[in-house]
Amino acid sequence: MTLLGVRDLVTAYGSVEALHGVSFHVDEGEIVALLGANGAGKTTALRTISGLLRPRSGEVRFAGDRIDTRPAHEIVRLGLTQVPEGRWIFTLMTVDENLRLGAYAEPRVPREALDRVFALFPRLAERRGQLAGTLSGGEQQMLAMARALMTRPRLLLLDEPSMGLAPVLVRQIFHTIAEINREGTTVLLVEQNANTALRLARRAYVLENGRIVLEGPGAELARNEAVRRAYLGVGARPRGREGARERPPAP
Ligand SMILES: Nc1ncnc2c1ncn2[C@@H]1O[C@H](COP(=O)(O)OP(=O)(O)O)[C@@H](O)[C@H]1O
Ligand SMILES: [Mg+2]
Q1: Which of the chain's termini has less CB crowding within 10 Å, N or C?
Q2: Would you place residue 125 in the very low, low, confident or very high pLDDT band (cuts 50, 70, 90)?
Q3: Sorted alphabetically, which InterPro entries does this protein's record hold (predicted)?
């Protein structure tokens, strides 16, 4: 079943268009990666989906319903939550307070939601009374993800969760994303770390200058020459048939 459907999305900042008709979908249960260079429009796409930006045209459907005209807080209530780029935790509040704020959409903080995030992130459980600003970068990213999970979303949007983290922490974050997905949460993952993202994602899309230019199964995109050259930092090498489908340039 299609959980998220994005069609012909056009989003602009004033007179400058950042997305020029973007279409893609995420099926229930999938991890889908959205790749692209800096400035390609990844964050704009996520912010439009979660209701923080209004599209100029096109539509976003979540579980079949149009959400592109709804306010962000209603979209969260429907089960779609975004972890923004750059963490955005409350540094002068404790870990525990940050998590309770994450559940603001519900009148009472559900005990199971807290138990679940502490099971996923044992380090946060150990530090639940500590001010969030005193956590390491990796722990702050975990807290941002944990806080988003407090809403018990059906779809989690992650904007560059591995940004600025040491390799060992990157592995840990990706491992946790896989676990979150196994427990039933669908994931749309924006990443610069294409190598790891493509290993994790069932399918992926490549965004270039506000347009989707490539799509395919993660494993096949990882073998695609254009992707390898642009995002995986590897030179071209001869290859057989590619599974990834190139989209014709938009008119
Ligand atoms: N607040 C903003 N005001 C004006 N232009 C913006 C704003 N945010 C992003 N842009 C522009 O929109 C384009 C896409 O940016 P963004 O979605 O942040 O890309 P990405 O997340 O892929 O790096 C870029 O050209 C960027 O300069
Ligand atoms: Mg971005």
Answers
A1: C
A2: very high
A3: AAA+_ATPase, ABC_branched_ATPase_LivF/BraG, ABC_transporter-like_ATP-bd, ABC_transporter-like_CS, BCAA_Transport_ATP-bd_LivF, P-loop_NTPase
